[in-house]
Design goal:
Blueprint lengths: L4 E9 L2 E4 L3 E3 L5 E3 L3 E3 L4 H7 E2 L15 E5 L1 H10 L4 E6 H12 L13 H5 L3 H4 L2 E6 L5 H25 L8 E8 L1
Helix pairs in contact: 2-6
Length: 185
Amino acid sequence: MGISYSFYLEASVDNKWCCVCPQYKNRDGEISFHTIIDGKSYLHEVVDDFAYERGVEPSEELKGDYMTFYLFDSEKAKKYITMRYNENKGYVLKDEMERFIESAGDGSSGHEIYEWLQPDEFAALSQELQKAYVYFEWTNSYQTLEILKRIDIVANKFRSIYERQMWMVSNSDRPTAYRIVVGVG
């Protein structure tokens, strides 16, 4: 079964946290919230490295019996994103690099690179074998850097949607802060 992770955006309005993720009706006709991102094992490392303060009190809309909530450290995540351009670097087969670039260009997370040579391994190859390789820097779609970028992009979109809705309802109180909470269950 495994542990599930769900990321939500909340806003503080009148000193009260409320979920500002877009809503939809689920199959049972109940109102549910879209998540920033959710999943199982591939989010484990991100939660371990960027979630803190276990047992934080979520907004009323998110309270449930099956989840424990953590705060997500958005500032630490932004620093991580700005400090790194790619997660991996090394010598890869030219056709592997080309397939990776093609799949990135079509918007899929299709082809990933999991095998490469370090500089000393590459240097040990014959000159003929070296011709099949090229130096390359990349990040696979389910690595920390790409996940953090997705979280940032979607959270910003949700914030923008919410603020446009608030702008349209002029008598609404404006949020004083935002936060991302992670439900673990």
